[in-house]
């Protein structure tokens, strides 16, 4: 199993740890400290050695930040974690704060006026540090960069940094030679009028050098840094223990290789009298300080690998289609198995284990071993389904009971692609309210799947399409509609997203998720998710300008027992029936007779709509 169901988060020691932290802060001469969920690479995916927020608070979500002051402490989380955080932290120590309503900068302005607040400059981006400094100074406070993280001084059993082995990502899957990618990036650096830039995002390093790693769970990343130059060879800073002879030879043909300990001195030498590009959204604030102290100039420029990494090439697109076909067979086998189980006989963990086993079994049959799951499977039944990023453990595990909904959000890592799919399943007979809410969510998903939009459209422009049916019913969901997907990389990838914060233009070749939802606390959760590929803009008959559209990559049935056709238009029902015809055609011959019969029944037309 790639997933463990043991509960790791524990807030029983939070009070004592916060007390020790406060002692250290007094010694550092500061009135408080900011504890983000971050490492030096500012990514979503961090190793256990960087899980400071979880160690201090017990909160295990993928995003959040704590602020510890002399007499109070708070933890800020977004809408995905408003329920989870109250279950995982000591509420006598930490006050949960909704970050959608109160940003970290606003919180500091309200709670830390006139105070000196410490931060670890390796764990905050250039842009974030600037915002926090401005906020504090506006109320007479000061943001203080500490030379050492005070949590590390008291975390006596802190895990060692990861040393997972790196592997070469074959060009047949990467779609382009690493040398060509690096030449393209050098041109981008020169165009930005910089002498060099620093790649801090391990996904960018993996993409640019055609390598993959094993330093963080479920995401094939090798942690490290790289200095890329407008002219001259790049330098890659990575633990040599991660490189076998083949990987060493592959990388040595592309770049000079040095150790992580050599990184800071190398940045100082590189920066002297030169212009260094740093992505303000990704680069650690510490790097800006090093460059400027060495007599260099910081030029704000986006990570040059981020956009080309997001726009998949022909090889990556072919791999994504193949991976989704393979994954669709495994998921459909699971759905058929699940439907044969009696209510009250399957637990959340048992379902997650069965799905992973079926993925592994079919992937082996297909000749593409399952490399990993792409994130911990979200298997939430009944009230657990209302916790957006619920992670089942052996204490929270429960039976799937008659009359409940089961929300199953999962994904796989194959060498040719990364998948992410959510299906909501009825356990027994669903209520009319469940069917109504499911159909409103489905209408939003179909609206995104069928959208046509002109060049220059951003994710924020598309996001309301997924919500309008829910809005009309007085409902909404507190997460984005879609995130970018990597190519055997991170399941969450930027810059593209379909969300209220999705300011990046959606371009041909980008893969995104399409996953509206609805969550009723204490009762049930609903989410339907397919992955979609942005198609090149094309003329529409009778139209004036070319329009992009989406190709749906995910292939697995959507449970029609939860569909209320009377709430749908003819076009929406036509899309659902056409999608199911495509699923049958793609998967049918790859299933045994029993599962094929189930698929035929599960994808029957849903019936005529009540409205034209």
TrEMBL record:
| Domain Creatinase N-terminal residue range list | 17-144
The residue ranges of the Peptidase M24 C-terminal domain are 547-606
Q: Which InterPro entries match?
A: Creatin/AminoP/Spt16_N, Creatinase/aminopeptidase-like, Creatinase_N, Pept_M24, Pept_M24B, Peptidase_M24_C, X-Pro_aminopeptidase_P
Q: One GO CC annotation, please?
A: cytoplasm
Q: What Pfam families has UniProt attached to this entry?
A: Creatinase_N, Creatinase_N_2, Peptidase_M24, Peptidase_M24_C
| Transmembrane spans | none
* Record GO terms (molecular function): metal ion binding; metalloaminopeptidase activity
Arranged from A to Z, the UniProt key words for this protein are:
Aminopeptidase, Hydrolase, Manganese, Metal-binding, Protease
Q: In the UniProt record, does the keyword Protease occur?
A: yes
Report the superkingdom from the record: Bacteria
- Could you tell me which residue ranges the Peptidase M24 domain spans? 320-534
Matches recorded under CDD domains: APP (cd01085)
Which PANTHER family does the annotation name? Answer: XAA-PRO AMINOPEPTIDASE 1
Q: Which family, according to UniProt?
A: Belongs to the peptidase M24B family.
The name this protein goes by in its record: Aminopeptidase P
């Amino acid at each position: 199993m790639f997933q463990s169901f043991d509960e790791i988060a524990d807030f029983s020691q939070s009070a004592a740890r916060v007390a020790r932290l406060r002692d250290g802060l007094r010694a550092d001469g500061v009135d408080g400290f900011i504890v983000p969920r971050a490492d030096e690479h500012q990514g979503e995916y961090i190793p256990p050695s960087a899980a400071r927020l979880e160690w201090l608070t017990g909160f295990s979500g993928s995003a959040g930040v704590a602020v510890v002051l002399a007499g109070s402490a708070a933890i800020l989380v977004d809408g995905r974690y408003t329920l989870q955080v109250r279950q995982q932290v000591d509420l006598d120590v930490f006050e949960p704060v909704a970050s959608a309503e109160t940003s970290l900068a606003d919180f500091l302005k309200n709670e830390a006026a006139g105070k000196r607040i410490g931060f670890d400059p390796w764990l905050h981006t250039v842009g974030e540090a600037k915002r926090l400094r401005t906020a504090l100074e506006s109320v007479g406070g000061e943001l203080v960069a500490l030379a050492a993280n005070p949590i590390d001084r008291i975390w006596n059993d802190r895990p060692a940094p990861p040393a997972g082995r790196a592997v070469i990502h074959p060009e047949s899957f990467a779609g382009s030679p690493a040398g060509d990618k690096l030449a393209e990036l050098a041109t981008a650096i020169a165009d930005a009028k910089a002498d060099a830039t620093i790649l801090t995002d391990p996904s960018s390093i993996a993409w640019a050098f055609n390598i993959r790693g094993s330093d963080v769970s479920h995401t094939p990343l090798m942690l490290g840094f790289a200095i890329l130059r407008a002219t001259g060879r790049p330098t890659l800073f990575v633990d040599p223990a991660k490189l076998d002879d083949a990987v060493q030879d592959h990388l040595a043909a592309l770049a000079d290789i040095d150790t992580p300990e050599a990184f800071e001195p190398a940045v100082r030498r590189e920066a002297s009298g030169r212009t260094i590009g740093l992505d303000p959204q990704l680069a650690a604030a510490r790097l800006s300080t090093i460059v400027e102290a060495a007599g260099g100039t910081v030029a704000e420029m986006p990570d040059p690998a981020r956009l080309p990494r997001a726009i998949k090439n022909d090889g990556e697109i072919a791999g994504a289609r193949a991976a989704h076909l393979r994954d669709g067979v495994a998921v459909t086998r699971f759905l058929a198995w699940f439907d044969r189980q009696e209510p009250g006989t399957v637990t959340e963990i048992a379902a997650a284990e069965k799905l992973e086993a079926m993925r592994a079994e079919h992937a082996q049959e297909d000749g593409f071993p399952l490399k990993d799951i792409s994130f911990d499977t979200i298997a939430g039944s009944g009230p657990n389904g209302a916790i957006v990023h619920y992670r089942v453990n052996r204490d929270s595990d429960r039976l799937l009971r008659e009359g409940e909904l089961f929300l199953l959000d999962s994904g796989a890592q194959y060498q040719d692609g990364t998948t992410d799919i959510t299906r909501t399943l009825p356990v027994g007979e669903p209520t009319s309210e469940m069917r109504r809410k499911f159909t409103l969510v489905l209408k939003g998903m179909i609206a995104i799947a069928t959208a046509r939009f002109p060049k220059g459209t951003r994710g924020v422009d598309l996001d309301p399409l997924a919500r309008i049916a829910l809005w009309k019913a007085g409902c909404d969901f507190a997460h984005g509609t879609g995130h970018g997907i990597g190519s055997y990389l991170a399941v969450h990838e930027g810059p593209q997203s379909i969300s209220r914060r999705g300011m990046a233009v959606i371009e041909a070749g980008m893969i995104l998720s399409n996953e509206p939802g609805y969550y009723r606390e204490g009762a049930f959760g609903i989410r339907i998710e397919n992955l979609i590929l942005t198609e090149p803009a094309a003329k529409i008959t009778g139209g004036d300008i070319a329009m992009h559209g989406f190709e749906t990559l995910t292939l697995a049935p959507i449970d029609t027992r939860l569909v209320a056709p009377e709430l749908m238009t003819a076009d929406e029902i036509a899309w659902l029936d056409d999608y199911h015809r495509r699923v049958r055609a793609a998967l049918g011959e790859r299933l045994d007779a029993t599962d094929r019969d189930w698929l035929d029944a599960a994808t029957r037309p849903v019936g005529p709509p009540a409205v034209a």
